[in-house]
Amino acid sequence: MRVGVAAAWRALAAREAATRTGRRAVHRLGLGLLLGLGLLPAALADIVLRDDRGRELRWPAPPVRIVSLLPSLTEGVCALGACARLVGTDRYADWPAEVRALPKLGGLEDPQLEAVVALRPEVVLAAPSTRVTERLEALGLKVLVLESQTHADVRRALGVLGRLLDREAEAARTWAAIEADLRRAAARVPAARRGQRVYFEVESAPYAAGAGSFIGETLARLGLGNVVPAELGPFPRLNPEYLVRAQPDIVMAVRREVEAMPRRPGWQHLRALQTGATCGFEPARYELLVRPGPRLGEAALLLADCLAGLPPPAGGAR
User: Fold this and answer.
1) Which stretches of the chain drop beneath a pLDDT of 70?
2) 139-158 burial string, b = 16+ CB within 10 Å, else e?
């Protein structure tokens, strides 16, 4: 039985390899024809990209087997209509729904090296902080490292993925849709809330999204301030007393933490908690807010909807 299964697996692998070889042969034949007709410069025959390490990578054709080790990059691939090319993701990738059934390969701190290699990806998408990048490359895999910390990063990553996947038009449309959603979201924010200072909690330690984070950039696009200045870093850990002294006008966090905040020492004195100027999000919606990726516009609309539903501030905006 084992011999039969092994033989069947080898036959399946051989057919897949033949299919991929045939696909690439057709691709090269088409490129050769265009080159022969003078319709395609020779330099464009391969896909050549430079990642956020400055490393140049080359593919003879758009890859059809992709491993993504960052949820935002997984979402980017799917936003460009290439979800079917994914063969594995990190453990946290859960959007869109079809990626939940893919093999899960650990996280930033503990990616499963052998499992990644076993999937035979033509490219591995990773963050600069992914720990096994050099080891994957030593095993012969191509690792495309892309940063996703700011709005500009998201736009650039979409553009790089668009060129890699032959989906450049989709990448442009995706970013245009994000910008349109950001404008619509800004228009929904009540005038009385504009300029108010927000505390956005990313972890109960507490860690906050500062003005220099992608969340801070979204808040700024909505016309809001941030209780955490950019010089403290994108996601600083704060002394709890800092918030009591700073007195944010609006508090945002996952719902369970908003409900627990009045029980934190001293936090019952936060006026935002006393007046109900809080946005508590269900976990799935909160995950949307803390991922920099193609759903930035959707996240902005979610924030704007909460702000529009808050009670009017006493005495107007500060």
Assistant:
1) 1-45, 315-318
2) eebbbbbbbbbbbebbbbbb
